[in-house]
């Protein structure tokens, strides 16, 4: 009798399993992507903060040479060396997960600097884990000063919470190549990945574009730029969503 009850129970459970609807789980779309390091990797650095301590105490790490050095690392990444020797790297690039492929065929080189900056949280601007830096500033607003460095962070609209159909416009922002855009303005096509500028050298420039092209300080495999035929549609006016935080009875909190 007991054996019959057990068999009946097993049959009942099997029937429920066969008729039960499969569990549907929400997916984010990047499960198959190669996920990069998460969180700070500063604990892996062998460097220390001696250079920035010196800049804080003495105003720099060398005598003023009167020129700013700018080195191009590809995409939007630059290294700026101040006249008194402080080094700043802006927007190192990486392959962000979830975009269906690789933008870059190599990793951003591990690069020593005093200050690392990332202007916004897109994968081609935020590989701060590749910087051997004394300090990292991500998506900053306001003003920071150290030695002969003054950084002003201007807060801009970032499309992490879109209020319009910007990404529905065909080829938005890609209608011209960088070379075509450069030729529309007063410009210089550079022949090297590093330049040195002084107030005297640029005093007559106004909206002058200096184009590095493929002259970069790191190795990136060449690729053919895509061509676009579609016409861009007019974009809607941006919604000033930040106005919802405006104080009700005064201009500032």
Low-confidence stretches: 20-35
Give the total of beta strands: 10
Query: What strand order characterises the main sheet?
Result: 5-4-3-2-1-9
The rounded Rg comes to 26 Å
Give the mean pLDDT. 79
The largest sheet, given as strand count, sense and whether it forms a barrel, is: 6 strands, mixed
Q: What series of H and E elements makes up the topology?
A: HHEEEEEEEHEEHE
- Secondary-structure-based class equals alpha/beta
Helix content estimate: 10-25%
What fraction of the residues are assigned to beta strands by DSSP? 15-25%
Question: What's the overall geometry?
Answer: extended
Describe the structure.
The chain is of the alpha/beta class and 253 residues long. It has a domain at 46-156 and 178-224. It is 15% helix and 19% strand. It contains four helices and ten strands; from the N terminus they run H-H-E-E-E-E-E-E-E-H-E-E-H-E. A six-stranded mixed β-sheet has the order 5-4-3-2-1-9. A two-stranded antiparallel ribbon has the order 6-7. It starts with a helix and ends in a 42-residue tail after the last strand. Mean pLDDT is 79; it is low at 20-35.
Label this structure with key terms.
4 helices, 10 strands, 6-stranded mixed sheet, 15% helix, 253 residues
Summarize the SSE layout with pairings.
Elements: H1 2-19, H2 50-58, E1 68-72, E2 78-81, E3 87-90, E4 111-118, E5 131-138, E6 142-146, E7 149-153, H3 178-183, E8 187-189, E9 194-197, H4 199-202, E10 209-211
Parallel strand pairs: 3-4, 4-5, 8-10
Antiparallel strand pairs: 1-2, 1-9, 2-3, 6-7
How would you briefly describe this protein structure?
The chain has helices spanning 2-19, 50-58, 178-183, 199-202, and strands spanning 68-72, 78-81, 87-90, 111-118, 131-138, 142-146, 149-153, 187-189, 194-197, 209-211. It is of the alpha/beta class.
């Amino acid at each position: 009798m007991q054996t019959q009850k057990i068999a009946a129970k097993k049959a009942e459970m099997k029937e429920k399993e066969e008729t039960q609807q499969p569990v549907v789980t929400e997916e984010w779309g990047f499960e198959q992507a190669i996920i990069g390091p998460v969180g700070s990797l500063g604990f892996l650095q062998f460097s220390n903060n001696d250079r920035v301590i010196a800049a804080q105490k003495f105003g720099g790490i060398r005598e003023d040479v009167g020129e700013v050095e700018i080195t191009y690392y590809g995409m939007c990444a630059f290294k700026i060396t101040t006249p008194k020797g402080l080094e700043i790297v802006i927007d190192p690039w990486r392959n962000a997960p979830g975009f269906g492929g690789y933008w870059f065929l190599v990793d951003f080189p591990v690069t020593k600097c005093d200050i690392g900056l990332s202007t916004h949280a897109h994968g081609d601007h935020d590989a701060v884990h590749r910087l051997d830096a004394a300090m990292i500033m991500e998506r900053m607003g306001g003003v920071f000063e150290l030695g002969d460095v003054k950084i002003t962070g201007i807060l801009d609209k970032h499309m992490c919470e879109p209020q319009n159909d910007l990404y529905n416009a065909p080829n938005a922002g890609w209608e011209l190549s960088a070379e075509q855009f450069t030729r529309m303005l007063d410009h210089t096509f550079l022949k090297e990945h590093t330049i040195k500028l002084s107030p005297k050298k640029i005093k007559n420039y106004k909206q002058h574009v200096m184009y590095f092209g493929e002259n970069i300080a790191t190795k990136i495999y060449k690729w053919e730029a895509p061509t676009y035929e579609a016409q861009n549609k007019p974009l809607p006016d941006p919604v000033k969503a930040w106005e919802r935080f405006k104080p009700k009875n005064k201009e500032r909190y």
